[in-house]
Amino acid sequence: MNAAPDLAAAEAVEAAAPELLRVEGLSVSLPGGVALVDGVSLTIHRGERVALVGESGSGKSVTAQAVLRLNDRLRIDGRVMLDGRDILSLSEREMAGVRGGRIGLAFQDAMVCLDPIMTVGDQIEESLRIRGVGRAEARRRAIAILTELGVHDAADRLGSYVHEFSGGMRQRVVLAMALVAQPDLLIADEPTTALDVRVQRQVLDLLDQFAANHALSVLLITHDMGIVASFADRVVVMYSGRIVEDASVFDLFERPLHPYTQGLLAAIPRVDRSQDELAAVPGSPVPPALRPSGCAFHPRCAKATEVCRTEVPPLETMGGRRVACHHPATDGVHAV
Ligand SMILES: Nc1ncnc2c1ncn2[C@@H]1O[C@H](COP(=O)(O)OP(=O)(O)OP(=O)(O)O)[C@@H](O)[C@H]1O
Ligand SMILES: [Mg+2]
Predict the structure, then answer these.
(1) Which ligand sits closest to the CA of 62?
(2) Which pLDDT tens digit goes with each residue over 246-261?
(3) Dihedral angle at the C-alpha atoms of 270, 273, 277, 282, nearest 10 degrees?
């Protein structure tokens, strides 16, 4: 794990590494027209780790699924550029090559991703076999990836079934399936939420090491700001289907600009604060169909004024970061 959010390192990644994924104006709507995700734009550079955070229902999973066109009954607009090519316009066959190939996917609940009646080895090897890799080579790579993910007797465990595995081991299998075809980007949707804290830390450490060794880009969806601080280079904050803030981990924790981000950070439990003093963002999120006019956060925001009720604040670049707020906490940050 990174010892602390490192501003210089984060900026170095941004400056030096080329763009890998650029999402532009991505909207995902229900057949009736309600936007679950409304005009999301974000960029992930090579080797960069971006955390996507926000309360339940803010559109994190829908965004991740739309990048891979997994939510096929929803309408998707906008562009998803992978190495400069819009993958939303690929044929279904080409898209199948991207999923699990260029972009690996790992989801929260291992038991949903894993097949109880297939051996662990067959499941990990499947994504290689469908890409034409021979049986022996696929087995060799499955053993190598599991070993790298800390499974010591990988060759012996490949014939096992998932019910014979502990939670932490199952999550390693999910990661092995996502990573075995050597993707450039891993999208991990709350990959460790179902695990206890100690095992969660182990799995994240393994992923951290793996990502560093392979210069893997990661889009990590999580509720846990502690995980964000130790794992990510940059944080994208979503509220009600829109991005409200995007900043390096250092900048975000040091000086959150959006009142919602300030609330999220204030809600982090701290050892020096008793349970009674725990702050939380007051109020609760509303479903997309009931999204308020203007800034969707305005009914919960202490700083809200008339303009917040009527106009959606644009996501503006300020001092190398982005924020969508009519009254951001701009102390010391100059608009560019
Ligand atoms: N297929 C779908 N049909 C209708 N509504 C959906 C669909 N998928 C998601 N939603 C709605 O879209 C909104 C965003 O959902 P999403 O799953 O992306 O939230 P999330 O940020 O991932 O939340 P969580 O932290 O709980 O996983 C929610 O209001 C959800 O109910
Ligand atoms: Mg989700």
Answers:
(1) 1
(2) 999 999 999 999 999 9
(3) -20
